[in-house]
Protein 1
Amino acid sequence: MRILVTGHNGFIGKNLIQFLGKDKEIYGYNWDPKIRPDVAGFDWVIHLGAISATTEFDVDKVMLQNYEFSKWVFKECNTQGVNLQYASSASVYGTNTNFNEDAPKQPQSPYAWSKYLFDRWVMQQEHNIIVQGFRYFNVYGNLEDHKGDQASPYTKFTKQAKETSTINLFENSEMYRRDFVCVDDISQVHQKMLSVNKSGIWNIGTGTTVSFLEMAKLIAAKNNAIINVIPMPDKLKNQYQKYTCADITKLNSVIDHKFISVEEFINASN
C-alpha cells in the first residue's frame, strides 16, 4: 500500500509515518505554496498539513493553508481515484458540551473555523473515493517538543519536571478537564480505518476526561517533582476550553480499539 502523508514533519505526522512505515510504502509532503504534491499512484492520501496554532489570527493565512489547500487535495484525490483521510479537530465544537459528531458547532478561532468549514464543504461534495475525516481531541505524546507554547500539557509538564523538578500549574486547574488522546492511538486508528470502506467524520478521543491537575500530579510523581500553583494571566482566562470529552459511539461502530489512559502512558514512559 502506497500512502502520501501531508504535514509529515509535524507532531502527528512524524508519529504516523513511524508507525505506518513498518509495513507500508510511505511518502511525505510539507506545505509549500509554490509546490503542490502529485497524488497520482497512491492508494491513500492522509492529509494532516495545517496551521494548527489556535492562537494564529491571520485569517487569510489560515484559510489558504487549512481550507483552500484542503479543498485542492480533495479535488486531486477525487480526480485521481485516491482515497483520502484528513485531520479535522474537536475545536469545531468550541464551548459546546455535546461532543457527538452531529452536535451544533461553535468554532472560536480561525483554526477552528477552517476545520469546520472544510468538514462542511467536503461532506457536501460528490465523490467516487473514500473520504474519512477525524476530529482529534487533545492529542499528546512523543515527538512534540518542537511545538513550543502549542505543545500539550503533557509535554510542557514533563519538560518542566525533568529540567527544573517543578511543574508550574495555573490555579483552578482541577476545573479544566480534557479528553487527552495519545498520539500512538491516533496512528493506530488511522491504520484501522484504512480497512473501513466507508466515508464520514469520526471523533478520535478516549471518551474519558483527565484534569490538568491530575495529569500534573502523575508527571510530578513519576519525576520526583513538585507542583507550583501560579495565577492564570488575564489574556488566557477566556482562551481555555474547560471541558472536552469525545463521544466515540460512531467510531466504536466501525472499529475495535482500546485507548491507552494518561496514567498508563505516563507510567510506561521514560
Protein 2
Amino acid sequence: MPGSRGDLGVEVFRELSTEVWRGLRVLFSKPLSIMINIITAPLWLAFFILTLRGFGVLTLGRFILQLFLWAAYAFALYSSWLWGFGGGIIEEGYEGILESVMSTVNNVFIHIIGWGIAYSIYTLLDLAALVLSFYVVFGITIEVRDPLLFAVSVILASLQLLLISTIYAMLVIRLRSNWVITDIMQFLMPALGGLIPSEASRYVMMINEYSPIAYPFVIMREAALGYPELPIPITYQVLYSVITVVSLLIATAILVRIFDKRLRREGKLGLT
C-alpha cells in the first residue's frame, strides 16, 4: 500500500507538470498578442492619470502614483483571472476540450490546477509591464517596503482568484447562463474584492474590512507602500486570507468533483 501511494503521488506530479507545461506553451504561443495585451493596459492607465493631472484633479505625488499602480495591478489580476483563465475553462467546456482531458489526466482538478500555475506565471508579466511603464512615463522606481509580505499577498491573491475563477466557470457551464453570472461577478468582484483602496471613502474601508476576499489586495498595498490601510493587524489579515482560500479550495474541489463524476459517467457535459 505505501508503494501504491508513492506511485500515485508520482503519477499526479507527472500529470500536473504536463498540464503546467502545456498551459505555458499555449499562453506563450502568440508573443505579438501577449505584447499588445500587456502594453495596452499600462498605457491607458498612464493616459488616465496624466489626463486627471492636466485638468488639475490630481496631484501626482510619489505615494499617489504608487497607490494607482497597485490598484491597477489588482484590477489587472482580476481581469486576467476571471475573463482570461475562467473564460478559458468555459471555452474548454463548450468546445469539448474538458471531455478529451479525461483521457490524459486522472482528475479534471489536476488540469485546472496545472493551468492555474501556468497562468500565475503569465500574470507576472502584467506586474512587470506596469512597473516598467510607470518608470518610463513618470520616472519613478517602484519600491516594495516588505518584499516577503508582498510575495505572500500575491500568492494568496492568485490562489483566491484561481479558485473563484474556477467556481465561476463551473457555474456558467452547469447553469448555461453566461451573462447572468458574468454580470453578477462584474459587480461583486470590484465592490467586494479589495480592488479599491480604503482611502477612497469610509464606505470602501468598511467593505475592505469586512469582505473576506478583500484582504489579499489590502495586504498587497500595505506591504508595497509600508502603511496600515485597515485597523486590523497584518497577522490577522493574513490569517483571514488563508481561511478564505482554504474555504474556497474545499468548495471548488467539491464542485469540480461533481463535474468530474459527470464527465466520467456520461462522457460529456451535454453543452452541445
Protein 3
Amino acid sequence: MSAEGFILDSEFLIRFLCFLIVLCCISILEVRRPRRKLLYSKSRRWLTNLSFGITNAAVVDLGLSFLVIASSFIANQEGWGIFNIIKLPLVFSIPLYILLFDLTIYFQHRLFHAFTPLWKFHRMHHSDGDYDASTGLRFHPVSILISSVIKFGLVLLLGPPATAVLISEVLLNASSIFNHSNWRLSAKLDSALRSFLVTPDVHRIHHSMSKDEHNCNFGFNFLWWDKIFGTYKEKPALSHQSMSIGITEFQGKRCISYLLLLSEPFKTQKKANL
C-alpha cells in the first residue's frame, strides 16, 4: 500500500488516537496542577462537552475530514492548486501549508466573532462557565460544518500533500485540547512556549466575560498571528484565578444543558452582549 493510500484509509484512526492520547494526558495534568478552581459540576460539564465532541465526530467531522484529505489527493492528481502549479517540493509544501492553515483558522475565528450569524453558533463554545480540556470539544455542529467547508476550499486553492493536511488536522485537535486546558504551566515553561505557541493562559483571556479581553487572542496554534495583527493581550486585567469565564446570559443550566445549547442559535436573532 502506498503512503497516500495508508493516509486515506487510516486518517480517522490516526486523528482519533492522537486526540485520545492528548486528551488523556492533558486531563491528568490539569487534575494534578489545576490553574483555576472549577465552578460547575465537572461530571455534568464533561458529559455535555463530550456529547458535542461525539456529535461533531459522528455527524460532521468524520465524513468531511475524510473529504478534505481525499480532496488533496484529487488536487495533486489533477495538478490543481498553487503548490502544484509552482511544483513546490514536499520539504517546503508541508510546513508552508501548516502555517497557512493556521493563519486561515485565525481569520476564521475572527470572522466567527465579527459576523453575527456565525457568532450565534460560535458563542455556544464561549458559553462554558468553566475552562478546561473539555471546552476544546464544545463546538456547535454548524460551526464545525462551516469550518470544514473553509478547509475544503483552502485545500483546493493550495493543493497541499495529504500528509500536510493530516498533520494540520492532528495539530488543530491537539492544540484545541491543550490551549483550553486548566493545566497550570510553570511561569518559565509558559514564557518559553509563548515565543511561538498559544498557551492555556493566553487563550483563557479570550474566554473572559470582559469584551476587551474577549476580542483578543484569536490564535489556535501559533501566537505570531495575534502579535502581527494587533490582537494579542499578554494578561487579563484580573488574575487568571479571579477573571470571569463565559457569557453573561449563559449561566446555570443554560451553560450545561446539551439540548438547550444545541438549539440556542436557532432561537435568537441578535448578537449577545458580553
